[in-house]
Amino acid sequence: MASYAQRGGSYEKAESFDAAQNDMIKGQLCELDEAGNEKDGGIRIENAVMMPSYMKVDDEKAKFADVKPGETVKFNPYKAWEGNAPELASLLKIDREKAVEVTSDFNYTVDEITRYVPGEMNQDLFDQVFGKDVVKSEEEFKQKVREIIANQFQANSDYKFLLDAKKVI
Question: What is the full per-residue pLDDT of the chain (169 aa) written as tens digits?
Fold first, then answer.
């Protein structure tokens, strides 16, 4: 049932970041020099999207706890993703070979936070999954899902019975 609710969900704006909700943030990413100032000719990305909950290092991930739109977080992408070239290249919009060489700190100014909200078990979801008015209650929905699953495994069940019968005979 949860997978149907997931498919029927939507993204909504959130007031503050919550790693437990797998929130996604969008903002401006700016490379810093050793003094902590914006680096001349450094990497600058508008509308950089990331999910801090996927960071591999908890200390870097924790810097985003309860951050709100308009706030700026200083973090190190190289440390956050343990030098993982594909992750860094995707975030920094550069080649993988160059990405692993970027070990400086960055400022991330949060513009927007979005949170995925699973769909509710209601008539809209029932209609979306099975068609208009085919199912009218949560109990009917569950029964219909059970039937689909049973039908999907019928061929496997028949095959297993055949193998077991051959062994016995």
Answer: 667 666 777 889 999 988 778 899 999 999 999 999 999 999 999 999 999 999 999 999 999 999 999 999 999 999 999 999 999 999 999 999 999 999 999 999 999 999 988 877 888 888 888 889 888 888 888 888 888 888 888 888 888 889 999 999 8
Q: Which neighbouring-strand residues pair with 109?
A: 28, 72
pTM of the model: 0.71
Reference 26, options 50, 4, 59, 56; nearest CA is 50
- What tokens does 123 get? 């008539």
Which are the contacts of 167, defined by CB distance < 8 A and separation ≥ 6? none
Residue 69 CB-density burial (10 A; 0-12 exposed, 13-18 middle, 19+ buried): middle
Work out the burial of residue 41: count CB atoms within 10 Å of its CB; fewer than 13 is exposed, 13-18 middle, 19 or more buried.
Answer: exposed
Does residue 85 contact residue 102 with C-beta atoms inside 8 Å? no
State whether residue 123 is helix, strand or coil.
helix
Nearest to 81 by CA among 103, 65, 49, 110: 103
